[in-house]
């Protein structure tokens, strides 16, 4: 069982990071990919609204990961998107002292339901608000991005370095999709519609973070706090050399209480530029 120091989490990762990777891959192979482009009507439901979809792939993959991850790390908690939907109080484990696995079984469910490839499985291991490791798996392309705090970010074993945006080119910024954005957030995001910035609605949040870590995109601008969407990707961007900031000028806290929207960016200058534009429009 993990003791009350961070070194033991690092030791756990040294021994078991590959086991987590195997669990993520198996969840996708057993529960997600067999249903991709084969979903029956009864396997798709709506949660909070017409765009908030959930499928049997989401539910079953999360159940599999919950069982395996909890067994790998006795004493840990699991916070999964679908379990929190069923029992919102379970989200409080993120604010506790025990290590917590943060799971989004299918990030980009709408794309998954439509038979598109832009979805992924997200797993992060955190404690007391600090994300120590993350796994981002895009099963259609069999691409796995991993990050361990202090040890870098990798995509299929190759080191990721976000770098800085190309001088003179418009910043490529993925923003909260209008279907999931409040009127106030839309007003704040309007600050990005300016010279030198090329905003667009986001797809899967996990894949948008991966694009920033790879240097394919310059930043994100998101207006919601659900940790399962952000924890894995924020560490990936950090370990690739990027950073993240809220409108209050502080790093995003996965436990909540952030001033929104916030950004994750390839470098500090880009993060500050995006946040300044958001603040001006608030």
Describe the structure.
The structure is a single chain. The chain has helices at residues 7-32, 56-72, 81-86, 109-113, 183-189, 205-214, 227-239, 268-281; strands at 44-46, 53-55, 77-80, 100-107, 120-127, 130-138, 143-148, 153-155, 158-159, 171-175, 197-201, 219-221, 243-246, 262-265. The model has no long low-confidence stretch (mean pLDDT 93). It has 282 residues and is an alpha+beta fold. The strands form 4 sheets. The chain has a 7-stranded mixed beta sheet, with helices on both faces. It has 8 helices and 14 strands. Strand 10, helix 5 and strand 11 form a beta-alpha-beta unit.
CATH homologous superfamily heading of the largest domain = Fructose-1,6-Bisphosphatase, subunit A, domain 1
How many DSSP-defined strands?
A: 14
Helix-strand pattern: HEEHEHEHEEEEEEHEHEHEEH
- Termini distance? 46 Å
Count of discrete alpha- or pi-helical segments spanning 4 or more residues: 8
* Strand order of the biggest β-sheet: 3-4-5-6-7-8-9
| Rg over CA atoms | 18 Å
- Architecture per CATH nomenclature, i.e. the level-2 architecture of the largest domain: 2-Layer Sandwich
Helix content: 25-40%
Helix-and-strand structural type: alpha+beta
| Tally of structural domains | 2
General shape: globular
CATH topology (fold) name of the largest domain: Fructose-1,6-Bisphosphatase, Chain A, domain 1
The portion of residues forming beta strands comes to 15-25%
* The top level CATH class name of the largest domain: Alpha Beta
Low-confidence parts lasting 5 or more residues at pLDDT below 50?
Answer: none
Largest sheet properties = 7 strands, mixed
């Amino acid at each position: 069982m993990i003791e009350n120091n961070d070194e033991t989490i690092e030791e756990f990762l040294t021994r078991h990071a590959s086991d987590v990777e195997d669990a993520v891959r198996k969840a996708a192979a057993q529960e997600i990919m067999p249903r991709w482009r084969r979903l029956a009507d009864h396997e798709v439901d709506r949660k909070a609204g017409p765009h908030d979809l959930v499928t049997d792939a989401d539910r079953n993959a999360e159940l599999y990961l919950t069982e395996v991850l909890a067994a790998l790390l006795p004493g840990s908690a699991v916070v999964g998107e679908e379990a929190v939907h069923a029992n919102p109080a379970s989200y409080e484990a993120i604010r506790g002292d025990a290590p917590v696995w943060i799971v989004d079984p299918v990030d980009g469910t709408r794309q998954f339901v439509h038979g598109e490839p832009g979805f992924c499985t997200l797993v992060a291991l955190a404690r007391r608000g600090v994300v120590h490791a993350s796994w981002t798996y895009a099963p259609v392309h069999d691409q796995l991005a991993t990050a361990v705090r202090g040890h870098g970010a990798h995509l299929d074993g190759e080191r990721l370095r976000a770098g800085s945006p190309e001088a003179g080119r418009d910043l490529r910024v993925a923003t909260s999709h209008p279907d999931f954005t409040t009127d106030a957030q839309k007003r704040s995001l309007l600050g990005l519609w300016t010279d030198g910035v090329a905003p667009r609605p986001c797809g899967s949040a996990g894949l948008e973070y991966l694009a920033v870590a790879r240097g394919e995109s310059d930043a994100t601008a998101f207006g919601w706090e659900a940790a399962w969407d952000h924890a894995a990707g924020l560490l990936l961007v950090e370990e690739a050399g990027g950073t993240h900031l809220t409108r209050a000028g502080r790093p995003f806290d996965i436990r909540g209480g952030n001033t929104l929207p916030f950004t994750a960016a390839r470098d500090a200058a880009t993060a500050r530029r995006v946040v300044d534009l958001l603040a001006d429009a608030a």
